Structures are given as C-alpha cells and as structure tokens.
Amino acid sequence: xxxxxxxxxxxxxxxxxxxxxxLGAGQFVWDAAGGAxxxxxxxxxxxxxxxxxxxxxxxxxxxYDAAQRGPGGAWAARVISDAREGWQSRVSGRxxxxxxxxxxANRWGRSGGDPNRYRPAGLPSKY
Length: 127
Prior knowledge:
The protein is mainly alpha-helical. It has 5 helices and no strands.
C-alpha cells in the first residue's frame, strides 16, 4: 500500500511539470496506479502458480500489462522492477546473473514483447 501511495505522489510531481497539464497528469497517475496493480497481480499469480521456471514469464507479463496502459504504466513497471531487483540482488543472494535475466524479461515485457517467450511448458493456462 505504501508503494502505491509513493507511486501516486511521485507521479503527480512528475506530471505537474509535463506539457499536458493537469489532464495529462491525471492520466499519467491513473496509468501508473493501474500499472502498479498489474505488477502486483503478476506477482500474486506467480506466488499462486508456484511453478518452477515461471519467474521470467511473470516478470515479462507484469511489465507488459503495465506498459500497455501507457507512459504512466510503463513508468510504474520500471520503478517497481528496478526497486525489486535492486533489493533482491542485495538480499536474496541469487546473484547478478539472475538479476540480469529478470531485468531482461522486464525490459522485454515493457517494450511490448510477447511474455509467452518466457512461458515454461506445462504452466496452467489460467496464467
């Protein structure tokens, strides 16, 4: 919840300086909030699926869904992904190689690439 509030406030600050004025700022904030929700939904699906080898798919899917909302969604996806990978690389001990692979999947999804590129065989169609 705190992350969403921070994203919302930062979005407002960034958008007030934008050329689009208040209406554009509102759209950016709306897209950022929706993008944060998309990222959370992908994370919760990943936890629920608990499927070996599906991590990169859910990274790409969350970023893809968020970026489809527009610039605010893509911004939220980038901020959340970078923060999570920064934290994970320091705390989890999974190493730089895993972080780089996750970030590649994040960028792929944000750029509009099909998340199914990372979909492991046998992952239930629900996801």
